Amino acid sequence: MTTLLEDIQAYKEQFKQKAPKEKQEIMAKATQELKESGVAQGLKAGDQVPAFTLPNAAGEQISIQEVLKQGPVILTFYRGGWCPYCNLELKAYQRELSSIKEAGASLIAISPEKPDASLSTKEKNDLQFTVLSDDSNEVAEQFDLVFKMPEDLIAVYKDSGLDVPGHNGNNDWELPKPATFVIDSSGEIIFAEVESDYTKRVEPSKVVQVVKETKSK
């Protein structure tokens, strides 16, 4: 079985071979500018998780406080089901789901997609964990993850037929940075990984290890 990082590397190699050079350069430039901008740094270990309630893919309201009563939570923010790197990450978390449950934790994934789009993502990837819809990015804002896409990158997405606002139900072309948090049952963030480069993700097995080490203390 391959790791998430191996899957991502394989996809990146395919993209380099297939995508027009100009498109690759615009995307790389946007990533570098986001890194240098200093925006959306994300919450850090030691911060308290904001209180929030969001709908799942079936439209049911899920409260983070209620889930934390059952134990630690792994919370991962992704851009949307249209993002190949996000899908690779979600599938990798699905492979680790039994280990997450054995460690006594819950797994929640959040994107700005509308519930019906989240349902499509959940079904497409056969996800057996909770997928929440933050279609106004309000919760992602509370986690300091939201940035506005630059115009040249928006043009690339439009040329590719990618309708991000259509998935999200708004017209702001704003996205959360990919981010993963481990939250203990008291609501304290004990692990935080926030990436400006959307092609980089933390390996789920590493996150599971954080949970196990926390439980053993």
Short recap of the structure:
By secondary structure, the chain is of the alpha/beta class. It has a single domain, classed as 3-Layer(aba) Sandwich (Glutaredoxin).
Write up what this structure looks like.
Belongs to the peroxiredoxin family. BCP/PrxQ subfamily. Its EC number is 1.11.1.24. It catalyses: a hydroperoxide + [thioredoxin]-dithiol = an alcohol + [thioredoxin]-disulfide + H2O. One of its GO terms (biological process) is cellular response to oxidative stress. One of its GO terms (cellular component) is cytoplasm. This protein is of the alpha/beta class and 217 residues long. It has a single domain, classed as Glutaredoxin. Helix content is 45%, strand content 18%. It has ten helices and nine strands. The strands form three sheets. Strands 5-4-3-8-9 form a five-stranded mixed beta sheet. A hairpin with a 5-residue loop joins strand 1 and strand 2. Helix 1 runs antiparallel to helix 4. The longest helix has 17 residues. The chain is globular, with a radius of gyration of 17 Å. The two termini are 30 Å apart. The mean pLDDT is 94.
